[in-house]
Amino acid sequence: MSSAPASGSVRARYLVYFQYVGTDFNGVAAVRGTQRAVGVQNYLEEAAERLNSVEPVRFTISSRTDAGVHALSNAAHLDVQRRSGRPPFPPEVLAEALNTHLRHPAIRVLRAFRVPSDFHARYAATSRTYLYRLATGCHRRDELPVFERNLCWTLPADCLDVVAMQEAAQHLLGTHDFSAFQSAGSLVPSPVRTLRRVSVSPGQASPLVTPEESRKLRFWNLEFESQSFLYRQVRRMTAVLVAVGLGALAPAQVKTILESQDPLGKHQTRVAPAHGLFLKSVLYGNLGAASCTLQGPQFGSHG
């Protein structure tokens, strides 16, 4: 954190929600140094330079996403310290200013809120929901409509056994050691997480997909909700549930995989492609003295 505000200046902390199409980015986190790769955070902080804060503005991201992963609504906190005599920006003015100065068309700030000075966007989050989109009926990725490319995982099948996937998903619900679904070698204090909700349901194509294409293509949504996830946990759980849907695994085998706590088992080493994954929402509960509940814009199932 930066030093105490200069005499007469006011430092204000904000929570901002933002979205992005992750195709062009090396993930959400900033890439420092002289590397050519760039993260969403790099563009957000570049836009924030135009706020003329006394101290450089740094975004503390709630939920890190990998290269190619998208976000319908991610969150971050930032501190803006205006010069002496200038009041803090109203949240709506801050959001508008950031959008005005963003230099990449695949990023947009959705909303901003004033929050207490000790608020932390990562640690205060009470819920995170991820959406994974699948497509069947399209045996090669280049057959997918251009408006859906990089937004779903194309499966070489005409259908999925959704009932079996739903049965398998029930084994993942609740509090478990999810070591089997984290990337091998991940360093975390504990691999125990609580999966509050998992669903498998029909999805919708983009309205820009032609009626002829819509007749043969089918889209499916997988959603996962937890306070936090292990590294690549969602993409690994998705890959296993897809294997069930394709008949390569029985639903009961998902329980066996979970109980093995082995990230190197032959069935759980596959990772679903990044381009089908969306961070759908980050929610925050009671904020103490603020005595309010903050949540990002709400979205239905993404089509």
From TrEMBL:
Signal peptide: none annotated. InterPro entries: PsdUridine_synth_cat_dom_sf (IPR020103), PsdUridine_synth_TruA (IPR001406), PsdUridine_synth_TruA_a/b_dom (IPR020097), PsdUridine_synth_TruA_C (IPR020095), TruA/RsuA/RluB/E/F_N (IPR020094). Its EC number is 5.4.99.12. GO terms for cellular component: mitochondrion. GO terms for molecular function: RNA binding; tRNA pseudouridine(38-40) synthase activity. It comes from the Eukaryota. It is an enzyme of class 5 (isomerase). The active site is at D66. GO terms for biological process: tRNA pseudouridine synthesis. Residues 19-123, 168-284 form the Pseudouridine synthase I TruA alpha/beta domain. Substrate binds at Y130. It catalyses: a uridine in tRNA = a pseudouridine in tRNA; uridine(38/39/40) in tRNA = pseudouridine(38/39/40) in tRNA. Keywords: Isomerase, tRNA processing. Belongs to the tRNA pseudouridine synthase TruA family. This is tRNA pseudouridine synthase. It comes from Pan paniscus.
